[in-house]
Amino acid sequence: MNPWELGRRTTLAVLAFASCIVAAGCAVPTAMPVDVPPIFAGAPRGGALRVVVIAVANPRASLSTQAGTTPGLYEAAPRYVTGEAARRRLDEVRQAHRLMPLAGWPIPTLGVYCGTFLIPADMTREDALAELARDPRVVLAQPLNEFETLGRDPVRAAPTPAGGVDPSASYNDPYLSLQHGLQSLDVLRAHRCGRGAGVVVAVVDTGADTTHVDLRDAQMTSANFVDDDGRQFLRDFHGTAVAGIIAATPGNGVGIVGIAPDAQLMLLKACWQTGHGAGAQCNSLTLAQALSKAIDRGAQVINLSLGGPPDDLLARLVRQAIAKGIVVVGAVPPGDDRRGFPVGIPGVIAVREGAAPTTSDAGLSLSGRDILTLSPGGHFDFSSGSSLATAEISAVAALLLQHDPHLTGAAIEKLLRDTASPGTEVPDAFQAVAAIDRSCAGSVPR
Fold first, then answer.
1. pLDDT for position 18
2. Would the N or C end of the chain have less CB density within 10 A of its end CB?
3. How confident is the model at residue 325 (pLDDT cuts 50, 70, 90)?
4. Nearest to 388 by CA among 407, 405, 374
5. Going from the N-terminus, what domains does the chain have, and what CATH number goes with each?
6. Are 346 and 378 in contact (CB under 8 A)?
7. Please, what is the end-to-end C-alpha distance for the chain in angstroms?
8. Distance CA 245, CA 257 (A)
9. For residue 48, what are the contacts with CB-CB under 8 A and spacing of at least 6?
10. Which residues are catalytic?
11. Within 367-406, where are the H helices?
């Protein structure tokens, strides 16, 4: 397989970068291995430990003034050019440090052009990064980090209707009575004031079954930064579960009720499923592409039901999102570790599974256990983990943003704390909505 091939979207950026290198007449350094494994998500399959990410400055430019350039990964996004000067600079860095190019892509919102590179066989990655850090042309140099989703596989069989719907609800979805998380959040009363209409929620995750009977009527767009496998996109478990919690169609006589079913989902596949369950992995390249697209396409909430080590490139993107007023919600990994990505970044709403935190800076806490949601192929199942709790908070944020689009993540987190159910500290979606929309407070009975 051609080592430049990363799938349809990534290939566009890779070939643009490759053409620059070919035009410059650059040979592959002799210190590089002769046989490079097939490239997947910006790295040789199974070889990410020898890959570095490098960024050089690439200011915005007008496409009309740059002949022969390629917009790259952002099909319908604002027109952006990978400047020839930036590509030349990155290739100069590559030659100076004896690196093999793997993938390249622009990040308009940061004004940089990034590439992933395989380091020489006679160097350690630590030595390569130390050498790159001393190069004044380099804005950023870091490992190609790996991340994983934070959901757990179902531990029970798929549900069967138990006593029909909750008699206090106006919906006819047969599994509603099993949605204990939705009920503890007081979502049904909040729905009488709004269901997230017009709010754009970016789900940076695996793919999702957009044909699912309880999801196909939702407002959705999608993009894939991992590969070009449309069938696998629909078979991905974790993203299907997250999307279902947020936007499953209520009142259709089947399945469950989403917390913010009128929100607009932006499904951005940055993680690939590992095995047949909830496990999935992502890396710095795929997550950077997805985050950049979410920012450029006007997301108001970004759901990150995943975690991993600190990452400079991704942290810059998240800080940019927060500076633009985007609400970023992230999952706290097992062990309550707040040092990594994304929950180690100030301004991210951190959501943990389990008991309520004791301090105001410890994030929000939900049960996150046995959450009934969607699974691929038209099925329904229980899932657990901070991934699912994170999706619940992202959806509640969408409910609040419908009533006040100017709310920041910090304001939403404080509002959810201040209106939480007494004695439990569990967020109360209705009370939070009523606190910012007094007309709702007086119009919805208990």
1. 41
2. C
3. very high
4. 374
5. 8-144 (no CATH), 176-441 (3.40.50.200)
6. no
7. 62
8. 8
9. 144, 146, 283
10. 205, 238, 387
11. 386-403
